[in-house]
Amino acid sequence: MKLMPTMRTLLIVLLTILSANTFRAQQPALTQSNENKSLSRDGIIQTNLHSAILNEERKVIIHLPRDYSKDGSRKYPVMYVLDGTSQDQHTADKITVLADAGLIPSAIVVGLPNTRGNRERDQTPPYMKRDVNDENSPLGAADKFLSFVEKELIQFVEENYRTSGYRTLSGNSRGGLFVLYSLLEKPALFQARFCYSTPVWRFDNLMVNKTAEFLRSSSGWNQFFYLSVGEKETDQMLGGFNKMVEALKKNRQKGFRWVADYTPFAVHQDNALISTSKGLAEWGKYLQRINK
After folding, report:
1. CATH code for the domain of 166
2. Beta-strand pair 44-51/30-31
3. Per-residue pLDDT reduced to its tens digit, 250-278
């Protein structure tokens, strides 16, 4: 039986994905204690980092580029991905594909899983309540979490891996609030930021207003910023996204390159999965432009 060209193409894609997943499943996760053994091949390193700032153990998942062991002098940019275990693997896979195509540089991906029950604490800015529907909700503690990222996590990664000093940060949903908060508080800590399906509408568009105020009072630095929302997300999400885009347009700054996308057919649950490739590709265009 002959297959139609479209069906044949879909079958090839499906078999390719299955083969890649099978190969990944066969690769044992590597711990910090046997990290050196991983440098001769692809590796996912899982380790724990004790945080004195947070007073807890934090898991860290490090995805090394496939060519990490080939050139001991080569250094790599690092992408820090919030909500590790749900967002880091597909991000690392997309970086590998786009880097192989020459569209972006190879990068180390650092996934940061949440501790039980503390996602809202860590990713919510300290001037926003963790629960938008609870008047008695405590405020977020993103200031403390950002301190951990800056002083403990980044230091750990840069002391143990060959990093170039170029850092990026990616967050989905509430994680996007933390990404925005890092821009407002520590703009130079990361050179590129990615926000997917971020609820900037909360508390009367507070993060939109703070971002606009920040841009009006800041200048003289080079940054890339990507944000996206699913076309089929809620009216609140779409409304907040539109207001953020308006704020970015009204407060353009030289050196601050931003790209905003509506992801066709996407809902809140799959927007990041779908639009990460576009965000990374836009980042690659930005890098090519500034490096000419």
Report:
1. 3.40.50.1820
2. parallel
3. 999 999 999 999 999 999 999 999 999 99
